[in-house]
Design goal:
Helix content: 25-40%
Low-confidence stretches: 4-23
Number of helices: 4
CATH topology: OB fold (Dihydrolipoamide Acetyltransferase, E2P)
Mean pLDDT: 78
Oligomer: single chain
Shape: elongated
Distance between the termini: 109 Å
CATH architecture: Beta Barrel
Largest sheet: 6 strands, mixed
Strand content: 15-25%
Strand order of the largest sheet: 7-4-3-2-6-8
Radius of gyration: 27 Å
Length: 174
Amino acid sequence: MDRLWKAAACGGLLALLQAGTAFASCALPAPLEDRIGDARVVFVGTVVETSNLERNADVRVEKIWLGERLPQRVEVHGGEQSANVGSSADREWVDGRRYLFVLDDTTSPFKDDACSATTEYTDEVASLEPEGTVGPIASEPGSFSPWILLGGGLVVLGVLQARRAARRAHSIDV
């Protein structure tokens, strides 16, 4: 019976170790300038909020260096989405920090990891900014704010009420 307990304890310990952190190694990176040229999307942004143990970031887009125009906010996933699986290749974000995101996919949520060329935005990185950078799209394409609809409705009602009052005033004067 004592052997059975030891075997169960060893099996449990192995299972816990398996669900923990997996290790990955990154290839020797090319210079940042080369990696920027090979990417599909490159932008400067500030992390506004993190989740999933700092592996997911809600990012405010500031400048787009390469790729299609992006909305003002995007999401970047820096690792597995499962809460109990981690890897040394996971990227962890810091709230309020600016980064140059150098990514291979083209739509949010973007996937990033510690092996990508994404880096903290410094003066040295800023010196690599190409000509022709653009800002983000003011709002999501096809999105319509309910406040605009409400404001438009109130304007229409105000105009109708003013016409009605003018007609009443005119009919009373006659």
